[in-house]
Write a structure and sequence with these properties.
Elements: E1 6-15, E2 18-24, E3 33-34, E4 37-39, H1 46-58, E5 62-75, E6 82-93, E7 108-115, H2 125-132
Bound molecules: 8-OXO-2'-deoxyguanosine-5'-triphosphate and magnesium ion.
Residues 37-38, 57, 107 line the site of magnesium ion.
GO molecular function, one term: 8-oxo-7,8-dihydrodeoxyguanosine triphosphate pyrophosphatase activity
GO cellular component, one term: cytosol
Protein name: Nudix hydrolase domain-containing protein
Length: 143
């Protein structure tokens, strides 16, 4: 593939004090816990991409989708180095009683809700860096 930066979209799907994470099966970040998400497709808004990726990967419908932050990272560990500008969104479940399904088991070996104060290890390194820097995806009290 041509050496160009690509756009990733990752979603902090929040439920109570927990966030949805999946154990990645991918040449980038294999066997680390990451947010659901994927590649921005031609013509999509960030919000459309986040909702589509959530549906494809987990079967979940999401709402209240908001932009949080953006990162610019080069992944040198993959067989072919790749470069992503990644848009981070937060969202809530449309219906809190929806079933969580691992619909892409070849890309993810398990999905679960994890307490923000007790995240699993190892986290996908860009996510680990965000956590280490004090980033918090939950709305502040004044919101
Ligand atoms: N899913 C996800 N991607 C992330 C995170 N942080 C981060 O920089 N990215 C970047 C690097 C990923 O390779 C890129 C695209 O996401 P992905 O790797 O899950 O892509 P995917 O296979 O689901 O893509 P697709 O073909 O279904 O569109 O976004 C994260 O926490 N979760
Ligand atoms: Mg994905």
């Amino acid at each position: 593939m041509e050496k160009v930066p690509r756009v990733g979209v990752a979603v902090f799907l929040l439920r109570g004090k927990t966030v949805l994470l999946g154990l990645r099966r991918n040449s980038i970040g294999d066997s680390t816990y990451a947010l659901p998400g994927g590649h921005l497709e031609f013509g999509e808004s960030f919000e459309e991409c986040g909702a589509r990726e959530l549906k494809e990967e987990t079967g979940l419908d999401i709402e209240k989708i908001e932009f949080l932050t953006v990162t610019n990272k080069v992944f040198k560990e993959s067989p072919k180095p790749s470069h992503y500008v990644t848009i981070f969104l937060r969202a809530a479940l449309s219906d809190p009683l929806q079933d969580l399904q691992n619909l892409e088991p070849d890309k993810c070996s398990g999905l679960g809700w994890y307490d923000w104060d007790n995240l699993p290890k190892p986290l996908f390194w860009p996510l680990e860096e965000m956590v280490q820097s004090g980033f918090n995806p939950f709305p502040s009290q004044t919101d």
